[in-house]
């Protein structure tokens, strides 16, 4: 459902030999605020060996779409990615740090708790 689906609805059909319609009902679609933004890592815990890959995934428990994602690491300015997951390939020492995902529904923004990534 989208918010523009709000309106008055009814149904109708032929009953014996005449057309009959139901009473009209009003349907209002409300925006569901963003909540429950969480971050997970593969391998779990955010510990990855030097040169290996790390995949971070952002999940949203509730919220009305469409949703947009951005990935951030402490101290970095520009977003690292814009999808629901972020893959770091061939990680190096400079990839260590706290990562966070931000989700927007166009009206509000919610953030995950930071995840500490350690390159071993």
UniProtKB/TrEMBL annotation:
TM stretches of this protein: none
> What positions does the domain Ig-like occupy?
33-118
Q: Which InterPro entries match?
A: Ig-like_dom, Ig-like_dom_sf, Ig-like_fold, Ig_sub, Ig_sub2
One Pfam family it belongs to: Ig_3
**Entry-linked PROSITE patterns:** IG_LIKE
Q: Which domain of life is it from?
A: Eukaryota
Protein name as it appears in the record = FCRL2 protein
Output the lineage of the source organism. Answer: Eukaryota, Metazoa, Chordata, Craniata, Vertebrata
